[in-house]
Amino acid sequence: MRLLLTWLINAAALMALPYLMHSVSVTNVGTALTAALVLGLVNTLIRPLLVLLTLPVTLLSMGLFILVINAILFWLVSTLIEGFEVAGFWSAFLAAILYSVISWALSTLLLSKDGNS
Q1: Are 71 and 92 a contacting pair, CB within 8 Å?
Q2: Which H/E stretch holds residue 84?
Q3: Which helix H or strand E contains 72, and what residues bound it?
Q4: Separation between Cα atoms, residue 51 and residue 76, nearest integer Å
Q5: What's the pTM?
Q6: Which of 19-27's residues contact partners 24+ apart within 8 Å by CB, and which partners?
Q7: Which helix (H) or strand (E) holds 85?
Q8: Mean pLDDT in runs of 10 for the chain (117 residues)?
């Protein structure tokens, strides 16, 4: 149940992005649900490998290169999902940060800390 709620929270965060950035568009709720699912899979499967491969650059940049990895993956998902559009790399960079902040805030508000939900 918690996984389903997290998926819905992430989809809601994606739906909020076009209201904050004009360079991001999500056509409908189904697209947001699909993009949230693909983002979750990409972040689970591909992101750890990229972080490991770019570890020297990440260490030299004191961890800031992880933001670049997040932007690239966000942009990649926007190219894979029809109806989820991001204008360019810098739009993806800012959108990935906003997406993380929004989904964190919604998760903090909606998910209980005791794990019983």
Answers
A1: yes
A2: strand 84-86
A3: helix 65-80
A4: 16
A5: 0.88
A6: 20/98, 21/91, 21/94, 21/95, 21/98, 23/86, 23/87, 23/88, 23/91, 23/95, 24/85, 24/86, 24/87, 24/91, 24/95, 25/84, 25/85, 26/83, 26/84, 27/83, 27/84
A7: strand 84-86
A8: 92 96 95 96 95 95 95 96 95 96 94 63
